[in-house]
Specification:
38% of the residues lie in helices and 14% in strands. Helix 1 packs across helix 2. 43% of the residues are buried.
């Protein structure tokens, strides 16, 4: 007697012969030609702040169907567990709890918004002794104790963040990180703010400017440079690579002689990016003092961000203020939405122009 044939379920391709394991999201990702994070977002029905096209969504669903992918019910049950805790993880060498630290205002906004929404906070200090290098798999794995986690830091471990997103864990980065597919983030509008600073300097008669920045590809630095160059273009001023000074160590590279050479070439305004190190602005100040440059009489200076609180006193720099407290609150709103499985969108937060006292009318040329 013939053995009865096994029937597959309608709409699902049978698993390959001899296979005993459950298809994984990584296999779906390979078949669909997308990242595992995208597969997680599509199959989990999550809104991580990144738009997924209908074409991509269809490819993922077709790949899952053809492989016979079925979500693990145990994992989904675990992911659905809630304990009303939000994590905060920093990639700085020391967790920013000092009121003088540039990240402290972010935490003020995070705490206020979390309290208003009924969440407690868990501060993860896995990087407190080793900086970003300590934020490896073990350090980030602990954040799963919370319902979701906020991340702060100029340099973040992309692979580990991708893994969290791929697993469907709610993650929000404070600061633009759209180079990591599927990662939700909140950010300040550095492009518009930098353009406004350049427009202000141009209005004071400055026709040649130089931007001093650190030599890396941090999104915040890239946005500031883009806004600076866009501002030059809109003002009809010379732009291009020669107007941007990049250095891994601005405090060593930007010497008084370099500054004097720029002045001799007709540069009258210098703009520095603000980072958690304050290296670019510190280098400009140090070089100007050593070269005996009168500010703002001989040259004007501007800072794209808030001055580091550990710098010695001096005139308030012209530039813009970063709304750190508002960004922290916006990050919590987005994370709370992701934890609840809701739509998670937050507009870019506008920076506030700061007139300061380091920019004046361009000096007359003889």
């Amino acid at each position: 007697m013939d053995e009865p044939r096994k029937r597959s379920r309608p709409g699902r391709t049978p698993a390959p012969a001899g296979r005993t394991s459950r298809p994984r999201q990584a296999e779906v990702a390979r078949l669909a030609g997308v990242s595992q994070a995208t597969v997680s977002l599509v199959l989990g029905g999550k809104k991580q702040g990144a738009a997924i096209s209908e074409e991509t969504r269809a490819k993922v669903l077709e790949a899952a169907r053809s492989l016979g992918y079925v979500p693990d019910p145990a994992a989904r049950s675990l992911a659905a567990a809630r304990n009303d805790l939000l994590g905060v993880f920093s990639f700085t060498a020391t967790f920013p709890t000092d009121v003088q630290h540039s990240y402290y205002p972010f935490l003020v906004g995070v705490e206020r918004e979390a309290a208003a929404r009924g969440y407690d906070l868990v501060l993860f200090t896995g990087s407190s002794t080793g900086g970003a290098g300590a934020a490896g798999p073990e350090a980030l794995r602990r954040v799963r104790l919370a319902d979701g986690c906020l991340f702060l830091g100029r340099h973040a471990p992309a692979a580990e963040l991708r893994r969290l997103v791929a697993d469907g864990f709610p993650v929000v980065h404070v600061g633009r990180r759209d180079e990591l597919e599927g990662l939700a983030w909140v950010g300040a509008d550095y492009v518009s703010a930098s353009r406004e600073v350049v427009a202000h300097l141009a209005g004071l008669g400055h026709r040649r400017m130089v931007l001093v920045r650190e030599d890396d590809e941090a999104p915040a630095s890239t946005d500031r440079e883009h806004g600076f160059l866009k501002g030059l273009e809109e003002a009809g001023l010379p732009g291009g690579p020669d107007t941007v000074f990049r250095s891994a160590d601005p405090e060593r590279a930007l010497t008084p002689d370099v500054l004097r050479a720029w002045l001799a070439e007709g540069v009258t305004a210098f703009v520095a990016e603000e980072t958690d190190t304050g290296a670019a602005w510190r280098a400009l100040r140090t070089a100007a003092v050593a070269a005996g440059v009168d500010c703002p009489g001989e040259a004007s200076f501007a800072l794209l961000g808030n001055p580091s609180p550990d710098l010695p006193g001096g005139p308030e720099p012209t530039g813009f203020d970063i709304p750190r407290t508002q960004l922290g609150a916006a990050a919590v709103r987005m994370l709370a939405a992701l934890v609840a499985g809701e739509e998670a969108t937050e507009p870019l937060v506008a920076c506030v122009f700061r007139p300061g006292a380091t920019a004046g009318a361009a000096p007359a040329r003889t």
